TrEMBL record:
GO terms for biological process: siderophore transmembrane transport. Residues 206-609 form the TonB-dependent receptor-like beta-barrel domain. Residues 1-20 form the signal peptide. This is TonB-dependent receptor. It is found in: Cell outer membrane. Belongs to the TonB-dependent receptor family. It is a multi-pass membrane protein. InterPro entries: Beta-barrel_TonB (IPR000531), Beta-barrel_TonB_sf (IPR036942), Plug_dom (IPR012910), Plug_dom_sf (IPR037066), TonB-dep_rcpt-like (IPR039426). PANTHER family: BLL4766 PROTEIN, TONB-DEPENDENT OUTER MEMBRANE RECEPTOR. GO terms for cellular component: cell outer membrane.
Amino acid sequence: MCLKASALLAPVFVLSLAHAAHSDDLFIQDLALPEVLTATHLHQPPAAVPGSISSIDHELIVASGARNITDLLRFIPGMLVVPDSGNLTTVNYHGSSPGQARRLQVLIDGRSVYRAGFAQVDWSDLPVAIEDIQRIEVFRGPNTVSYGANALLGVINIITFSAKDTHGSKLKTNLGENGIRDWYARQAWHSESSDMRLSISGLADDGFDKRRDGTDFRDGRRLSRFNLRADHQLDEHNSLDWQLAFKEGSNQVNNNYHSVFADNITPKAHEQDSNSDIQAKDYAASLRWTHTVNSQHSFSIQANAQQWERLRQWRACDAQISFGPALTEATLPKKGEIIPHSCGLINEDSREARFDLELQDTYSFSNSLRLISGLSYRYDQARSQTFLNGRQRKDITRAFSQFEWYATEHWLLQGGGMFEHDSSNGDSFSPRLAVNYMLTPAHGLRAVYSEAVRSPDMFENHADWHYRVRDLRPALSSGSSADFFISAQGSGALKQEKIKAYELGYNGYFAAQRLSIDVKLFEERISRMISHTPNLSAFNLNNNNHIKFYGSELESNWQASDQDRLRISYAYIKDRASNSLDQNVTPTHSGSLAWLRDWNHGWNSSLMYFAAKQLDGHDLQLATVRLAKHFNWADKRFTVAGNLQRTLNNQPIGHTNNKDNSQDLAYFSLQLEF
């Protein structure tokens, strides 16, 4: 059956399941239903969630052989993963703003890593090792009601192993093509009331092989990470958990500066740098205290502090008239006319900081009614002389509440809202209402309406973008420093984007067949949309655009036997946009297929396939293969694995400059646990 036909049959499939629910032999209940947390902050079985949620568990993470979190997100239906280079990948749900992560909230253990200053999530620089991840939960839909502005289209929650669930020591390394040199080391300690996990890791590679024109692509990366997590059970009613994380490294970037007067100047190679690399450092700390009053009532306080540092400085050349007063037609040189030039240091340093404090209360009035509510305060600051001419800050206060009410055995009503005051963007209120018809505890139909907002980032709204070029050689008559003649200013008048979303769906778990299925039909309308990407020569951002997404998504996981597991995802997405920049930004058809096999005697394998139709004019077909062997000696476990990633249709992946097949990779993994 073709992909398009599958999309059209999805509603029929949902209705068929609802009709079949009256047959008692179809649903054999499993008392140990899995639970998810990200949707509402409440532990819920997937069938009772007010929306669509995907979970990438640890088994799938290991079997994928993935070195990057972004590779795992290809399993999520409707998720667009686009590598711009070897060290820069963007991830977006339903494809809006493919160049930036504007409309997704990304969390590590509940701590937001979305950079509000510049609307970015630095996927290559996240201070977490993939080996520490227990699972990744992805809420596919608006969720400002739970996580505030920026959860416009979805939430990605990266959940790491708790210290008490980590045991012994682990050493691991990846070695392979394109300069792959990764390493990981972990140690866990346990006592009667406390548990601690320490992991240090590093990642290195040379990025893509070649550009499309055959020249070298300078996009390698080198990074090191430190993570410390501790869990303390203070007494019967109180627990304390804390984490420290640090990451430092460098990302290669070619000097792509192109002079406005390129036809009129002839700089020499030694006058300008060939690279403009980014030096990156991330610091993070979090503390969470949980008090359990009784089995019906608990509350917690979580505090997070973070800092991001991105340092980038390089030497480039331009015509000396570029550093003088505003140019006029009379002063413009004729094409081909050689004019004097100077070379100087360009600085694009930026620093961001955040402090976040949240109080959350969970109360069960009865077996059928639960309420979660809370208050939070967040302070964000961004500093950059080039992009902001100094410092910008904002304060955000929030109040939120959600309820879960089983009106009857089968009818589940959920609703709630978040009020948010943003010192830069004013007040907003985001509601959600969902009705789930629970055929059984493991099978539910759902209808959801939700609204959400996204606040413009500090750079979009308050940019003061200009370049003060220093150490000019030769110096100008005015000195060795001067301002470049082009600059840009943010209006400060941008409003929050707003979405209204409608969803019909089904989630079910067939215990006897060990099969889970989720189907979603959706329509999403974003208004007051900021479409343009900030540009120095044309900084004209506004709220004049809108877009509509509609379609269907399917996700299924089947433990076909004790040895075989199959996982499939598919998305059919159409869009109607008022601005040409937002049109055709997501493939109409996309999906993934994974087969995990345990061959016994310590051998296991995985075969995974990812496809997208017409992504930036190309069809993505990517396959990965992994074969692993486990050896046990006394209390030690040694694993050897071979990993291969290959493009199947000789086309670049997404919006990239890489040459065909330059992302083909082969590498080996060695792991020792004791």
